[in-house]
């Protein structure tokens, strides 16, 4: 069911329900993929190991004292059945001001696929074929789409950082992200089409720009890609009541 955004009265379209089990408080983040979170379980406060499924720094979301939403892991085994998971919880969202911000990149595929299948972007509407995880050059790009005999290669990135109302990516240097953009430039040079879908999870953001302070090489490559004809689509989403909602496409500001 559609709902309205509390701030600007925009219609929010439901995308994906992401159940959570408990709210906790961050104690520390020993490494990029692990956080220690204080939970209250059966009336007892405990410190639990929590998996962080996001390669970013997330320093404005995962810091001591901040509130986070967690989901109990489906099982305690990793994809490699010979290894036992060391964490019993997955981090889903972190708190900024009055908003919950999705910080689990495991859901990016379903969210981006929803946007493509529902024709949210005119350029990517009426797609006849969606092939995920396709190899191109030395990379594996998120999608290869086919539309009226044309091939469109698509890469998806998730953005959780915003400064003064401007969404920006990345929040940590990304050699892999730069390589993906270079592959998309090559796609265009070879006669196919290419696009980047930026999933913007900051509801207050008014526009998007690459983060030249954190990663000038990535930012320069994104600007070059845009000039070469790689289309960039920043799509804004909100996380409310354990569901992701689509807000709108926001403009570029670079």
Task: Please describe the structure with a list of short key phrases separated by commas or semicolons.
254 residues; mainly beta; OB fold (Dihydrolipoamide Acetyltransferase, E2P); Trna Endonuclease, Chain: A, domain 1; 2 domains; eight-stranded mixed β-sheet; five-stranded mixed β-barrel; 15% helix
Helix proportion range: 10-25%
Oligomer: single chain
User: Which structural class do you get from the secondary structure elements?
Assistant: mainly beta
CATH class type of the largest domain:
Alpha Beta
Q: Based on CA inertia axes, which overall geometry fits?
A: globular
Number of helices: 3
Strand content: over 45%
Q: Into how many domains do the coordinates divide?
A: 2
Q: Rg, please? A: 19 Å
Biggest sheet overview: 8 strands, mixed
Cα-to-Cα separation, first versus last residue: 35 Å
Number of DSSP strand runs = 17
- Elements, N to C (H/E): EEEEEEEEHEEEEEHEEHEE
- Which consecutive residue ranges, at least 5 long each, have pLDDT under 50? none
Q: Which fold name fills CATH's third level, the topology of the largest domain?
A: Trna Endonuclease, Chain: A, domain 1
Strands across the major sheet, in which order?
1-2-17-16-14-11-10-9
The residue-averaged pLDDT reads 93
